[in-house]
Design brief:
By secondary structure, the protein is mostly beta strands. Helices cover 4% and strands 12% of the residues. It has an 8-stranded parallel β-sheet with strand order 1-2-3-4-5-6-7-8, with no helix packed on it.
Amino acid sequence: RSVALLGRRCPALKVLSLNVNRLASTADLVGSTALVELSLKDNCLRALDGLKEGALRHLAFLHLDVNQLRSLEAAAGCPALRTLSAPTNALRQVPRLGGGRCPRLQALELYHNKISAVPRGALQGLGQLTSLNLGRNGLTELDGEALSGCPALLKLVLSQNALAAPPAPLCLPVLRELWLSGNRLVALDAWAP
């Protein structure tokens, strides 16, 4: 209730940093509809119960690093989202944020989670995504087709996984950075013509 009250008493509030606290819920954030940036790093969050459809419709930057989150699907209720940062959580899958739910998403940071696969379609509809960080997860393989929904991707980080082969087929026409360090690669023949 206190954060919701803050939203009503400070209706022009654009940036809210609640880093390094012991917050376990985001339910109180519903009243802060003008927020553009919200940082909840290093808390005790297990779910995003306060990000109901359209509740934070202006939110562009959401930082959830170092929590205990298992899902980020609720972030799809933030249609203006441009950056979603959630390293060091308990995520086991890539959130499905495409399909018009987060059409402006440009950066998705999922470093150091427990993601073991990226199924086809998981990133579909993220045409504005320019940076994807899946480093230090449990990926053992990655079908390049799973990345086909991200034609604007400039940076792809897959470091410190367990990939035995590079993602293929890889058709990302504007990709500038590809990080594959610290994997189990023995050959790059998957990219051979």
